[in-house]
């Protein structure tokens, strides 16, 4: 596409060294710039992209979008807000793919990955070609691609959507993180459905207050726009049992469909029963009632499945099809994942890295555990320090044997993070073992029949970030090794 044609979508700009080169790609990282790229200078949280404009041109950039004129020999497009211009131009460059795809966005503190996989499964079961964008990967039909962020930056996002459209995907389900909403990574995306799972404490390092965190979440619902886009009805799907639902309902002019278990939500679960193999409930909806049977456990998964059912209804699927689609849903990697090497006690790896998710998972474990509950848990560095003492309290309240260890310390001192956790549980019973492998080994070596070991916080992650270095580390593989060592020792004893 020619530069001048691309510039048509901007309301105002100034151009220096004007010409009309062919734009072959859009980039915001100078290291990815190739011949013919349009380079956007973005002011980030760590550095300012304007500092790399010269190197971008050296790497072949055909033009640059910046906040001020730059002494470079290519067209410099000057705008007030480069991030906003980038979102608008990316949408145009990639042919506005979100307008012809059915796009479902999911936001909330916990449950985004789980709900997105449930929705994806429902659409696959009615033979729709699907796309999935989230924490674990970007998936186009059967192909998966690695991803850095839960919600990619707008250039990567539009590129994926373009590819999905090219490959005849019908429905895209994507996680929309609060960081992404704040940084405008989803600007320009035409969502058909926006889902809200819940709002509890996390990310206060970034958003500062819960009110600001909620305000940012509400952007997804205001971005939804009107109740009808000319082709389809638009819906906000809200967890009615969460106090934030009211504000979110007021933030949108789309249709609202609520879900919940406590009151009179539009889509609600009644007669919930749990067994050690799964759960069942009666779902009451505006389009009928059905019995839901799933192989997952935990009240939080009732909520997750209700969100997915409500989304299916909003998209016009039959309730029977939706419930059928969920029947075979297996858990998502790293979410309540059992590591079973034949040991006489369950070892569970779970991605709970917030106070609320840890509490939910531990309550679920308590509902079936007969003996001790070992909780191996740490908190990430360069992330909300305020959640650390609370997570420690939750581990002590619901576990019998909490072991505090390192998560991803990143640039922080692991002992400082552990001290922050300890500040919440002075005088209570717990152990501190900074080395995560040792901590996992300690729990597994002490557990016996009837006990449960929970290894929380890193779920599917296959690495540990210490300082700037990324080491291979997979809780599931480490647990497996520790269990095998333990079983060998027991046999020899
Ligand atoms: C704090 C944060 O959110 N950072 C995100 C942000 O980067 P940034 O603004 O800090 O960028 P920066 O490093 O200051 O660089 C500014 C600009 O200069 C460019 N640059 C930079 C260096 C260079 O050598 N050359 C160059 O051109 C960069 O490409 C960028 O355009 O924008 C980047 C592109 O969108 C993101 O990849 C990056 O996510 C980082 C990796 C991150 O860890 N983010 C986490 C907090 C996050 O976003 N998490 C949520 C999920 C949270 C949850 O749900 O629990 C997520 O969606 O992943
Ligand atoms: N609806 C829920 N409410 C509370 N906790 C939940 C819920 N669903 C899942 N969890 C817990 O939260 C953890 C993370 O779940 P999931 O990965 O689905 O959330 P997420 O919102 O995608 O997280 P992230 O923001 O890190 O991507 C799970 O391992 C489980 O412990
Ligand atoms: N999306 C979350 C993941 C946290 C996972 C945990 N293991 C950590 O590193 O803190 C974040 O970036 O805050
Ligand atoms: Mg996720």
TrEMBL record:
Q: One Gene Ontology cellular component annotation? A: cytoplasm
Task: Kindly tell me the pathway this chain contributes to.
Answer: Cell wall biogenesis; peptidoglycan biosynthesis
Q: What is its main location?
A: cytoplasm
* Catalysed conversion reaction: UDP-N-acetyl-alpha-D-muramoyl-L-alanyl-D-glutamate + meso-2,6-diaminopimelate + ATP = UDP-N-acetyl-alpha-D-muramoyl-L-alanyl-gamma-D-glutamyl-meso-2,6-diaminopimelate + ADP + phosphate + H(+)
Record Pfam families: Mur_ligase, Mur_ligase_C, Mur_ligase_M
This one is known as UDP-N-acetylmuramoyl-L-alanyl-D-glutamate--2,6-diaminopimelate ligase
Identify residues that carry N6-carboxylysine: 217
Give start and end of each Mur ligase central domain: 106-311
Instruction: Note whether Cell division occurs among the keywords.
Output: yes
E.C. number: 6.3.2.13
Q: Where does ATP bind?
A: 108-114
Report the family membership: Belongs to the MurCDEF family. MurE subfamily.
């Amino acid at each position: 596409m020619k530069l001048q044609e691309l510039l048509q979508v901007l309301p105002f700009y100034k151009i220096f060294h004007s010409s009309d080169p062919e734009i072959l790609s859009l980039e915001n990282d100078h290291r990815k710039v190739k011949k013919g790229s349009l380079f956007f200078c973005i002011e980030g949280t760590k550095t300012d992209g304007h500092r790399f404009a010269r190197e971008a041109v050296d790497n072949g950039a055909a033009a640059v979008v910046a906040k001020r004129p730059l002494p470079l020999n290519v067209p410099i497009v000057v705008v007030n807000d480069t991030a906003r211009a980038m979102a608008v131009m990316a949408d145009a460059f990639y042919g506005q793919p979100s307008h012809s795809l059915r796009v479902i966005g999911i936001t909330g503190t916990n449950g985004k990955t789980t709900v997105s996989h449930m929705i994806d499964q429902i659409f696959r079961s009615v033979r729709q070609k699907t796309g999935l964008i989230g924490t674990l990967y970007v998936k186009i039909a059967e192909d998966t691609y690695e991803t850095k962020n839960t919600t990619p930056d707008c250039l990567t996002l539009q590129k994926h959507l373009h590819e999905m459209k090219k490959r005849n995907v019908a429905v895209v389900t994507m996680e929309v993180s609060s960081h992404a909403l704040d940084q405008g990574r989803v600007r320009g995306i035409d969502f058909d459905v926006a889902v809200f799972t819940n709002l509890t404490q996390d990310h206060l390092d970034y958003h500062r207050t819960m009110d600001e965190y909620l305000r940012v979440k509400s952007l997804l619902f205001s971005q939804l726009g009107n109740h009808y886009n000319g082709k389809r009805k638009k819906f906000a799907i809200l967890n009615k049992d969460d106090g934030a639902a009211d504000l979110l309902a007021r933030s949108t002019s789309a249709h609202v469909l609520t879900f919940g278990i406590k009151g009179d939500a539009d889509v609600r679960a009644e007669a919930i029963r749990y067994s050690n193999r799964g759960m069942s409930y009666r779902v009451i909806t505006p389009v009928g009632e059905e019995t839901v049977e799933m192989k997952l456990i935990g009240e939080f998964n009732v909520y997750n499945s209700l969100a997915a059912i409500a989304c299916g209804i909003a998209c016009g699927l039959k309730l029977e099809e939706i419930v059928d689609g969920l029947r075979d849903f297996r858990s998502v990697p790293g979410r309540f994942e059992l590591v079973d090497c034949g040991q006489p006690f369950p070892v569970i790896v779970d991605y709970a890295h917030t106070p609320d998710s840890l509490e939910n998972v531990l309550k679920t474990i308590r509902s079936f555990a007969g003996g001790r509950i070992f909780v191996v848990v740490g908190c990430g560095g360069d992330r909300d320090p305020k959640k650390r003492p609370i997570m420690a309290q939750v581990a002590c309240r619901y576990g019998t044997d909490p072991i505090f260890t390192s998560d991803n310390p990143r640039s922080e001192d692991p002992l400082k993070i552990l001290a922050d956790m300890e500040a919440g549980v002075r005088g209570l019973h717990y152990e501190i073992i900074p080395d995560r492998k040792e901590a996992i080994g300690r729990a597994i070596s002490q557990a016996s029949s009837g006990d449960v070991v929970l290894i929380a916080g890193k779920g599917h992650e296959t690495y540990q970030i210490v300082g700037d270095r990324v080491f291979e580390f997979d809780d599931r593989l480490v647990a497996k090794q520790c269990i095998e060592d333990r079983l060998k020792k027991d046999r020899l004893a």
